[in-house]
Write a structure and sequence with these properties.
The chain has about 375 residues and is α+β, with helices and mostly antiparallel strands. About 25% of the residues lie in helices and about 25% in strands. It contains nine helices and 16 strands. The chain has helices spanning about 10-20, 65-70, 105-125, 135-145, 180-185, 235-245, 295-305, 310-315, 360-370, and strands at about 50-60, 75-90, 100, 160-165, 170-175, 190-195, 200-205, 220-225, 225-230, 250-255, 260, 265-270, 275-280, 280-285, 350, 355. The strands form five sheets. The chain has a seven-stranded mixed beta sheet, with helices on one face. The chain has a three-stranded antiparallel beta sheet with strand order 7-6-8. Strand 12 (about 265-270) and strand 13 form a beta hairpin.
């Protein structure tokens, strides 16, 4: 046999042998020295999305019953009690206030809200505003540019120089080669109906035209990719997203009036963790994958650069209160139901860290509560 698979039991090896001999030998071929060079070409990934959402869940920790504790060895059941979702964009006319919800059917309200937000954002991105006239200095910059600063490639006949713009505002941004100009367009996701009335989900990319089914009518359903970001999504918040997901969230109707369901994407890391779940045109992103530290450390690091770096915080809260520029505390162990929200400082013991809530933390939490009430 010539396969690369390893066997630990003679019996398994003998069972595999007939299947292995039916195929040609396998061989690993390394690239030649001339072509063995890694290079980065995902230049469009260095640019931010025009719109994205940030979110967080808060939970009540319901203590298990005696039967649950004995049977499952459960310490507590984490039940979502509320959420906050905030739309982030540099376009001032499309900014909205953070949406905070606390009450019944938390996850149902959450999914309804983010789907409505994704639809609103897609509607904004679909209105391509014509490019505004360039100023004299912008024209001069464009004329003298011979190499695109991002991809470091020269402009050529097969990759010509273009004027890259913000399609939401129409503002000219910079000269770009044709390849990068196309890659920097808002990322489309499309659900198409083929000629035999079957459906398929086209992956999100920047090179999808308006008629992927090939019938020439250009009436396919399409939308734009909207990221929603959680910190520590893979280890915590993502469990609620998948646990409370319902099939009808991906339902849509074809041109023939048939109800069908779009695919749901996810990259599994192990039996408990995953990354980049994608439901419809919404992709869930874990900021821990590129900011691999606690929120407390991230806030402290940003604070060293000045409170003016907290642009969205200052926009919605007074910049004079230091409480908004540091990580707050939450009484996870103590919050078993909504009646605890009326309690004062008592018995706030956290078993995860093995200590009580100190006076400074309690005063910080109380100050935030009073100023936002």
């Amino acid at each position: 046999m010539s396969c690369l698979q390893v066997f630990t039991l003679q019996r398994v090896l003998e069972q595999h042998e007939p299947n292995s001999l039916a195929h040609a030998p396998q061989q690993c071929i390394c690239p030649s020295r001339a072509s063995a060079t890694l290079s980065f070409n995902m230049y469009h990934s260095e640019f931010p999305f025009d719109f994205y959402l940030v979110a967080d869940f808060k939970c009540f920790l319901h203590p298990p019953s005696a039967a649950d504790d004995d049977e499952l060895n459960v310490d507590a059941f984490h039940v979502p009690s509320g959420f906050c979702v905030f739309r982030v964009t540099d376009n001032e006319s499309y900014r909205t206030d953070p949406v905070v919800y606390f009450g019944d059917d938390v996850m149902g309200k959450f999914f309804s809200h983010i789907f409505a937000e994704a639809k609103a954002i897609s509607r904004i991105l679909s209105h391509k505003v014509p490019m505004a006239a360039l100023t004299a200095s912008e024209e001069a910059e464009y004329d003298r540019t011979t190499i695109y600063a991002n991809c470091k490639r020269s402009f050529m006949d097969d990759n010509q120089k273009t004027r890259h713009q913000n399609h939401v505002t129409g503002k000219y941004l910079f000269p770009a080669c044709n390849s990068c100009n196309l890659a920097l367009k808002p990322c489309k996701c499309k659900i198409v109906t083929t000629q035999n009335n079957s459906t398929k989900v086209v992956g999100c990319n920047d090179a999808i035209d308006d008629d992927d089914d090939g019938d020439g009518d250009g009436d396919d359903e399409w939308t734009y990719l909207v990221p929603i970001m959680f910190h520590n999504l893979s280890s915590y918040d993502g469990h609620f997203v998948l646990q409370f997901f319902r099939k009808e969230y991906t339902e849509y109707t074809t041109r023939m009036g048939t109800k069908v369901y779009a695919d749901v994407g996810v990259i599994l890391l192990n039996s408990e963790r995953n990354m980049l779940p994608k439901i419809g045109n919404i992709v869930f992103v874990d900021s821990c994958h590129f900011l691999a530290t606690s929120l407390d450390n991230l806030v402290k690091a940003l604070r060293k650069s000045g409170v003016d770096k907290f642009a969205n915080t200052i926009r919605h809260f007074s910049g004079d209160d230091d409480a908004y520029f540091e990580k707050g505390c939450y009484l996870y162990e103590y919050m078993t139901n909504e009646s605890k929200l009326d309690e004062t400082k008592s018995a706030f013991y956290n078993r995860l860290v093995g200590k009580d809530l100190d006076d400074e933390q309690y005063e910080h939490a109380s100050s935030c509560g009073r100023s936002t009430a």
